[in-house]
Design a protein that fits this description.
The protein is of the alpha/beta class. It has a single domain, classed as Rossmann fold, CATH 3.40.50. The protein contains nine helices and eleven strands. An eight-stranded mixed sheet has the order 4-7-6-5-8-9-11-10, with helices on both faces. Strands 1-2-3 form a three-stranded antiparallel sheet. It is globular, with a radius of gyration of 19 Å. The structure holds S-adenosylmethionine and zinc ion (ZN).
Length: about 270
Amino acid sequence: MAADLDRLAAWLRCPVCTADLRPVDRLTLGCGNGHRHDVNKRGYVALLGSGTSHVGDTADMLDARERVLEGGAYSPIAAAVSAACSGEHIVDAGAGTGYYLRAALPGRPGAHGLAMDLSAQAVARAVRSSDRIDGLVADTWRPLPIRSGVADVVLDVFAPRNLPEFQRVLRPDGRLVVVVPRADHLGSLRETGTMLDIPSDKADDVIHASETLYALLRREHVAYDLPLTDDLRTALIAMGPSARHASRHTAEPVTVGSTRVSVDVLLFSRR
Ligand SMILES: C[S@@+](CC[C@H](N)C(=O)[O-])C[C@H]1O[C@@H](n2cnc3c(N)ncnc32)[C@H](O)[C@@H]1O
Ligand SMILES: [Zn+2]
């Protein structure tokens, strides 16, 4: 449950009229124009505009991701993300289960984060995992129901990016932290045909697309060989995009004993 509704509301604006949201009663947020939004009993709010047709991650994908992340397989990525983050207000767009947001929240009691995801189940898990995480179900591709200039950091790890909206919600001196896979990320697993291809190094595309809105401060390549157990191998496949397209692949035995983790952690300042 979110620590309090004031803290949740302080991040948010009305998806209908963009006025700031405030608590109206114990389970409702509202704006000055009379729009009302229910807060889920589990402590997060869903602010989806009309017409959202995207689907967030399923419970099975989230279970698999939690097995991978909580087992420490990506802890070097979390360490690099944490080192790139600063300040007390962190918005994690496409937060999933909130693993990187938890890692990024510094040791100060005042620091807290907003886990945003299209999947309500993911947001519920992120909120449950820490009393310093508020939760928002929203679509990254829509105008975000988040106030302008509230975030010290916007974090985006393997998730869709809305660069103009991320810039709007950042403070003038805010930072954007993006994690994207390299072409060789989990290469040996992909060679088995069980995962979809990553076309090329995505970092170049992000850097190019962000040029007018952000200045690149740092590009860190985090890469290591990850030993695979049967459980980890299965979970890595089940948590990824291939899980939804599983029927396209014939189930062939996967026997690789290790795989390469290879991602770029990009740190940008807001222009
Ligand atoms: C590959 S997962 C990454 C999750 C988390 N950042 C992590 O690395 O553990 C992508 C996440 O983006 C979410 N997502 C996909 N499309 C979205 C959208 N349009 N708006 C918000 N979240 C979205 C999914 O539900 C999923 O949780
Ligand atoms: Zn409103």
